[in-house]
# Entry
Amino acid sequence: MVVPTMRKTQFHMTDILPATLLCLSLLSLSGCGSGGSDEQLTVGNITDQYLSLAEKIDSSALAPASDIPTTGSANYSGYVNTFVDTQSFGDGLIVGDLSLRIGFSGDGEVEGKVDDFVFIDLQDNSNNLPPRSDPVLSLDGRLNISGGSITRATRTNPTQFQANLAGGITLPPSISGADSDATAQVAGKMNGDFVEGGVRGSIVATSAVPGLPGVPLDGSFGAERD
# Structure
């Protein structure tokens, strides 16, 4: 079995190569790889929405401490993304829908979920690997966000939040290299900043297929306030 290994460098949606951005935008016209389909069109349009949101969140300024409430709660919607190096199957990006609720009273409360994952093929054929039949795949899975809290701003640090992340993502053979679907168990932390109109941050976690050693899984997230 080929287990996906996750690069340790933090990866932002807006770091994707221009050629990949062009490929994704063309999904709505003809598809990339072996040709377009209804499924590719749907996933391609969703991916385009992620990229637009990522550009907005990545360029947003940190919110002043005075703008962050001390009571009540807020809901946020956005994305989580992780760059994946599958070794024998090339590079890819796993993106998921992020739903987040942050309570501001006391030490704070952070909870939510990540689901509706897609895998985007970033393979450039420089490693002479055979092309995938479908460059964009839907993945089953859910990551739960819980046990979070808020750390209020100091003279040197902005207001931030932290939470636990745990769950599983089902990987098809074209990604895992296994003979059948394999579920990668994910466990780790998410650390975020409050920005104008939303939140953004990083994910540090471990992903493991049962019976095999865990591998680092690092990524980033961004979300707008609903």
